[in-house]
Amino acid sequence: MRILIAALVVVGSTQAAVSQDIYVNDLEGCAMMASSPDGDLDFAAEGGLLLGETGYGSLEYHCSFEPVLKFDWSEPKVTTHVGYCEEPGPYITPKLFSVLLDPYSPGEVTIFTGEEEPQRFYVCKF
User: Fold this and answer.
1) 70 is in which domain, residue-wise?
2) What pLDDT, in 10s, does the model give residues 72-98?
3) Total number of domains constituting the chain
């Protein structure tokens, strides 16, 4: 659990260092983060996912990938990243992540992993 919390803090810290933008899988997370200094941890504790340039995660689950994701919507872009997802146990699942950045939806990141539905993240601006 400590490793997962550390990974979440690193994802959040890395993202904050790159820009003020934070990416969440549910826009309610933006309000939680705006209302509390520990809003990111509160959001993650409720199962919310935070996206950074090297992966996404919550308190009990995280996915890491390479190469680093560049948040650039200047043109339509699909990039492929390799990595894994981990949950308590530890259960590690190798993954291929295809990331779509569409200039017609700036601030939205869509990640395809072979699941039925892609994972979507939305920018919070503070």
Assistant:
1) 2-124
2) 999 999 999 999 999 998 899 999 999
3) 1
